[in-house]
# Entry
Amino acid sequence: MYATSYHRASSVGEAVNLRASHDEGRYVSGGMTLIATMKQRLAAPSDLIDLRHIADMKGVSVEGRSVRIGAATPHADVAASAALRAVCPAICQLAGMIGDPHVRNMGTIGGSVANNDPAADYPSAVLALNATVVTDRREIAADDFFLGMFDTALEEAEMITAIRFEAPEKAGYAKFPNPASRYAITGVFVAKTADGARVAVTGAGSSGVFRVAEMEAALSAAWSPESVAGVSVDPAMLMSDLHATAEYRANLVRVMAKRAVLASL
Amino acid sequence: MGMEGIGARVARKEDKRFLTGKGRYTDDMVVPGMKFAYFVRSPHAHARITGIDAEAAKAMPGVIDVLDGRQLQADGIGNLICGWMIHSKDGSPMKMGAWRPLAVDTVRYVGDAVAIVVADSAAEARDAAEAVIVDYDELPAVTTSIAALQDGAPQIHPEAPGNLIFDWQIGDGAATDAAIAAAAHVTEIEIHNNRLSPNPMEPRATLGIYDSAEDHFTCYTTSQNPHVARLVMSAFYNVAPENKLRVIAPDVGGGFGSKIYIYPEEIVCLWASKKTGVPVKWTSDRTEAFLTDAHGRDHVSKVKMAFDKDHRIIGLKVDTIANLGAYMSLFSSAVPTYLYATLLSGQYAIPAIHANVRTVYTNTVPVDAYRGAGRPEATYLLERTMETAARELGISPAELRRKNFIRSFPYQTPVIMNYDAGDYEASLSAAMQAADWDGFPARRAQSEARGKKRGIGMSCYIEACGIAPSQAVGSLGAGVGLWESAEVRVNAVGTIEVLTGSHSHGQGHETTFAQLVADRLGVPISSVNIVHGDTDKVQMGMGTYGSRSGAVGMSAIVKALDKVEMKAKKIAAHLMEADESDIVIENGELKVAGTDKVLPWFQVALAAYTAHNLPAGMEPGLKESAFYDPSNFTFPAGCYIAEVEVDPETGKTEIIQFVAADDFGNIINPLIVEGQVHGGLAQGIGQALLEEVRYDEATGQILTASYMDYAMPRADDLPSFTLSHQNTPCPGNPLGIKGCGEAGAIGSPPALMNAITDAIGTNDLTMPATPLKVWSALQGAAMPMAAE
Ligand SMILES: Cc1cc2nc3c(=O)[nH]c(=O)nc-3n(C[C@H](O)[C@H](O)[C@H](O)COP(=O)(O)OP(=O)(O)OC[C@H]3O[C@@H](n4cnc5c(N)ncnc54)[C@H](O)[C@@H]3O)c2cc1C
# Structure
């Protein structure tokens, strides 16, 4: 790791100001991605602005069916939230499947969504739940947020403060983990929302998380595992790597979609 | 056995410090003035070095010096060597290419060390290393053994034309060919043994300290055999004469073979300490460990197994190509030859065996012994072949094995080994019973009803431990003897120190060796200390690998204890005015048999040291040493059964049960033995399901250099194991011990692969059986399966 300066922000405003005064600075949340990247010397921010001590950005609140998860909320807290489990257990299950206990106690939803790793779990939930990404300056709809691998609609120095969504009628998540990293080789989040069924796939797409229109149509017509079992995804738009070929991933999208619907029942 | 003696389930003495974070590892060592090293390493798999410019790096903050291979060579530091000479079948010696501790003209794998930076802090050393400008002319690279042998393949060492190191054979080729020609059935199969990275929890580290006043070197290092390290560094690398070099291997956090060898880093740090005048410490990070720790396995073999009409094996022919990587590591030549092909008879009476082994240079990390070293490769090959043969012949795998078991001992195989004792039927029966083998068809039907594919597979392994009779290994090319040493020091107050040439890096010697003393003398293990790992404290020793510490290391302690006892009895007899032959040692006392005369152990020890009243002519003191050279290898064996369920939709394998039935000879501490088996099974299951080092064939870049891509087994990958023992004592050593350190890693991969191929109905599957591979196999599979 190269030398860096650490700042602990206690409010959103302070964090934004700190970030604005350091061109080469970066926000750090759980540090589960950023610190590892710095240790490998693949990133060298001059300053780190720590977001985990900003009270407004921590915790889960549920009012009726409206959910707000502060960006600096660790995965373990999402997994354990009884209020959230009551309205949307699928996202609690997803959070509980991320990495290992150390990672879940440090890593945060804001960091995960901002990073938009093509194999991360949360992007599928955010997209399938039609969530809103709340930042220090605006609100971004999930459909407009994820632009490609590690690429989002966030502007330079823009900070996610919360993720908001309306709890769906039904939702389920199924993940096939990479045997080495335990990130998703393929993860599928299905949600029956007010605007119809939404299906988002992570881990598989060659440009990150994506929706599967054909599955959504089938599920909007009939919410059952059989509806998605026959829908195939074109391997041409999927990744191939050491652990999975595009053809294998195409198969997993179908199988995980089926299992996600099953889990939602 | 007593509460703490041989056979007692004693908790490990050493675990208190390990579990409370108080182990003292090489990286924990701090000496005054100590500085830190970082190695500049090749980013290319194969390249010529055209220039090194370290001026900018030398000017960076905290930098003390940057040193390269030319300076090292000018100072007369020698090349790394392989210490086991193998001759090709045409009589020519193996073709060993030069391995310079710091590359001079050519780099041959990604990670090859080029220069060392010494600085005030590790971070400054690393910063400066990035500023060292090395000019490379890239050369084409080759990573697989098959490709390296092809015409026109990149030539890696001038000494080894065509990248062939040796072309060796063992056994009777003509007799084997005749058996195959006359066979009623021949099973043919190609076997791949995947390349593994050892991944000990503690990465390698070294601290080189040069003392200019005494012209003396001290080397702290993560070694499984500090004396061998000293010997090799003195005799071959010209670091310093032995009396001017102290090697200390303190607590070492696992080795699995990878810490047997001398690597460039300890040589370079010692030399750099003299050059710079400061102690130099280097600690590998995990990426460097993937890039530079010796890998294991990487064999490709063609097999023909011939059967007569009664399903008896009449011949076995094996043609193996072994990838040794970019340089010949210390024992690399022995692994695919004498540690491998000599075990090809397995548990079976096979009249004719022939194996041909070619070893090959490639632009990859050097390959050497890794947990099991050669025996896992032999076992995997044989047991996959046996299972395939059973399927082809349409008989049950158990029956085929039973038909061919060796049943009387000693048994001379056609490939050197002379098995001294065993009962293969006992382990097979025990394993089948524990696994409820007969109930499998019903369980399979249940799985099928749930849409899952269930399979069961066995493996009957044998291995050779207790390496090894010095004269025998000398005649086969070993550059060292493989005896072990011990010194038993009884202190004046009766407490005991045992100095052993074995080295514990997870095996629990501090407990088991103390149990032996407790058993013999009746003293508590808390009064016994095991001293190891420091060439200034301990007499010459050969270290720990090949499950030799029990069979060889403890046998040396037995010999030393015999001498101590004899002297103690003489003293006791003298003091109690009894006949020496009437003295017995029990519960920490020396007694005159049949009387109430008794002397506590400490009083005899005190008498030996006060020397006020010793038998006439006796030397004072109570301290004896011994060297033990084994008369044979030992032959642990057993039967493992795996039962799996495969999810056909994803190709994922779940291990439903894993049964291990082992014959380890006599057992000193069942708790530790079970731990060794558990660890070995985890590594073997890792090899079968998860682990593989992969290279990009075009560039020679390693693709699995972190845990993001190299899959280590985790607790949730493993079932609870069902263990049992069917022990036949080893007749070859005083304790009847065979060894248990590697069995789990040796026996488990074929059992699992036999189970998975049984589940999915194809023989065509290579390790690791990842979900991707199993699913792909299922897309194209359809093979007639044998009767259960
Ligand atoms: C061993 C291991 C296993 C893992 N397994 C999984 C897994 O199975 N599934 C999975 O999904 N993930 C996994 N992760 C990733 C982990 O879950 C983290 O969520 C992820 O690393 C990012 O979250 P973080 O809070 O640690 O972000 P950080 O590492 O702190 O930051 C990541 C990036 O986001 C930026 N950032 C952080 N917070 C904000 C914000 N509020 N606004 C704008 N930008 C921000 C940072 O500047 C940085 O660029 C794993 C990580 C590790 C180390």
